[in-house]
Design brief:
Layout: E1 3-12, E2 14-15, E3 27-28, H1 31-48, E4 52-63, H2 71-78, E5 89-94, H3 101-107, E6 114-120, H4 124-130, H5 136-149, E7 154-160, H6 167-179, E8 184-189, H7 208-224, E9 228-231, E10 234-236, H8 243-249, E11 255-257, E12 262-265, E13 268-271, H9 275-283, E14 292-293, H10 296-309, E15 314-315, H11 316-323, H12 327-330, H13 332-340, E16 344-347, E17 350-353, H14 355-358, H15 361-368
């Protein structure tokens, strides 16, 4: 019997230019490469359909800059999943400069029903520093156009902790984000990895205390504007939580398609190779390269990490049922310490982070994992 897959991530690796902070796998765009990519993607799906049945509840196009694909191309890819649920959330990461009127006229018929905008900041100086090509006024004009075309689920990314940024700068940025009328906002603290263009500026990143104040300000302002925080870095209006990302955080299986994509099925995690190696793999009908087999302990610690990122927190009973692990007794001393410092809330069947605890979540999570 074929295994049913409900969540699909499709990585589109091409960009016309690389942003200064980006450390994701990308390739320089060309029309020839894009056409080859589409053919290879179909081939990958055909191979996988021998063992898997795709009844998708969510499909996510990430990148790269997947909005370089036309609505027609996206429609062709989505036609490969005819059994997807009627309510399937189909997200497309979009570079604002690609969303012209003619592009949107084509996109609305593609099947995409959720737009994720790489806004990053509404400050023109910081946009230029980050290497973004769009300008704030373009975003302001874009949101009403998206609504008029029929897109009613719009998310925007906000980056904070930019070198030279202060609290007042960020406060203005948040206000402008709120005024855009978005349905969902994802926030990211800027980090500069060694393979990013701006890595030499790493020492210029704000100090931890300032970054903590920035995070708290974002949470306060967005909550006040009726954005509910449902995960450490994600806020939404009622009913607009990202169903695809919730699948990750709820430890659901998902298949990653395309060069550089990641996927997890049961206890197997894998990532596809870069473009030309991925092409060779598919010619040889090799799927799931670069596998990592997760132990029960790995999966349990992942469960603790993912659940604690959610505002709903860890379900003590679910942790016990799935992994036979009684966290209340095994980690009693640690839980008590974090409660005393107002970093954790332990109530009935749940363990959740307090507002104070969310900023240092990585440390708290590491202390609660089982060795």
């Amino acid at each position: 019997m074929k295994k049913n897959i409900e969540h699909i991530y499709i990585h589109y690796p091409f960009c016309t230019s690389r942003c200064g902070y980006c450390s994701f796998y990308t390739e320089n765009y060309s029309q020839k490469k894009q056409l080859s990519y589409l053919d290879l993607l179909r081939k990958e799906i055909d191979i996988l359909e021998q063992d898997f049945s795709f009844r998708a509840k969510s499909i996510y196009f990430g990148g790269g800059s997947p909005s370089l694909m036309s609505g027609t191309m996206l429609k062709e890819i989505l036609a490969e999943f005819p059994e997807r649920k009627a309510s399937c959330e189909i997200s497309l990461e979009c570079n604002p400069i690609t969303l012209t009127n003619s592009y949107l006229d084509n996109l609305i018929y593609s099947g995409v029903n959720r737009i994720s905008l790489g806004i990053q900041t509404m400050n023109d100086v910081f946009l230029k520093y980050l290497g973004r090509k769009h300008r704030p006024e373009q975003v302001v004009n874009l949101i009403p156009k998206l609504r008029q075309k029929g897109f009613y689920n719009i998310s925007g990314d906000l980056i904070y902790g930019i070198p030279g940024q202060n609290i007042r700068d960020l406060e203005e940025d948040i206000s402008k984000f709120i005024d855009l009328g978005l349905d969902h906002i994802s926030i990211y603290c800027l980090s500069l990895d060694s393979d990013s263009i701006l890595y030499s500026d790493k020492a210029c990143l704000p100090e931890d205390d300032l970054v903590a104040d920035m995070y708290n300000l974002i949470c306060f302002k967005l909550e006040k504007a009726n954005f509910k925080q449902y995960e450490i870095s994600n806020f939404s209006k009622l009913g607009h939580e990202s169903q695809h990302n919730l699948a990750y955080w709820q430890q659901k299986d998902y298949i990653g398609l395309g060069a550089g994509a990641y996927g997890t099925i049961n206890k197997m995690r894998y990532n596809n190779n870069s473009f030309y190696a991925w092409e060779t793999d598919l010619q040889k009908k090799v799927i799931f390269p670069n596998q990592e087999n997760l132990s029960d302990l790995d999966k349990m610690n992942e469960f603790i990490m993912l659940q604690l990122r959610l505002n709903t927190g860890i379900s003590v009973s679910e942790l016990m049922n799935k992994y036979n692990y009684d966290i209340l007794s095994k980690k009693m001393e640690t839980l008590t310490k974090f409660q005393d410092y107002d970093l954790l809330l332990v109530k009935e069947n749940k363990i959740s982070l307090t507002d104070k605890g969310k900023f240092i979540s990585s440390y708290i999570i590491s202390e609660l994992m089982n060795e």
